[in-house]
Amino acid sequence: MINTDPKLYKEQEQLFKKVVEQAKVNITTCPDCGSIVLVDRTKDINTVTCPYCHVEDDYSMFADIFC
Ligand SMILES: [Zn+2]
Asked: How far is the CA of 35 from the centre of ligand 1 (A)?
């Protein structure tokens, strides 16, 4: 991260986790095109397909935005 204020970054991370836990939707990024891809956490998911560039990859390759 460029020029990140640690306190503000931590707050963003905590708010992110709050959203993900309450909505049960993970917010990830596509490993190919970098688009935001939402993933339903209530389902047992092994692979994810990006709706924008159609790349299909292991769920672990779709990093959540705070990884
Ligand atoms: Zn993509």
From this structure: 6
Q: Return residues with CB closer than 5 A to ligand 1 (ion).
A: 30, 32-33, 35, 50, 52-53
Please give the chain's pLDDT, 67 residues, in tens: 578 899 999 999 999 999 999 999 999 999 999 999 999 999 999 999 999 999 999 999 999 988 6
* Structural domain of 15: 6-61
Q: Is 26 exposed, middle or buried (0-12, 13-18, 19+ CB in 10 A)?
A: buried
Asked whether residue 66 is assigned to any structural domain, the reply reads no
CA of 66 to the centre of ligand 1 (A): 18
Full-model pTM: 0.83
